[in-house]
Amino acid sequence: MDFAVDTGATYTLIDINSLANIGYKKSDSIGTSRTVTASKSEIVYEFKIDNIMALGLIRRNFKVFSRALPFGLGIDGLLGLNFFRNQELIIDFKMSEIRINL
Hints:
It is built from 2 helices and 8 strands; from the N terminus they run ββαββββαββ. The protein is mainly beta. The protein has a single domain (3-101), classed as Beta Barrel (Cathepsin D, subunit A, domain 1), CATH 2.40.70. The two termini are 22 Å apart. The model has no long low-confidence stretch (mean pLDDT 92). Helices cover 10% and strands 49% of the residues.
């Protein structure tokens, strides 16, 4: 899966169709929540996924939100602040790098 880093997002969000592609159905959700984006408020599904790995970091039994992302974004989701909790996230624009100091 391809993700974008979103330091403005409290939780990680994965496209509902991308979750379906790895075996999660809407009926597997643990609930719903109302979330606010830059343009609107909407309902999202909550899931506990087995694991997610990005930038060398693995999270297990990890809570994510899910909804359909707009077509054509070219990503499967957004890595929110909950993914980076208790880590040092470095966004180096000069070097065009994003990394986590493990």
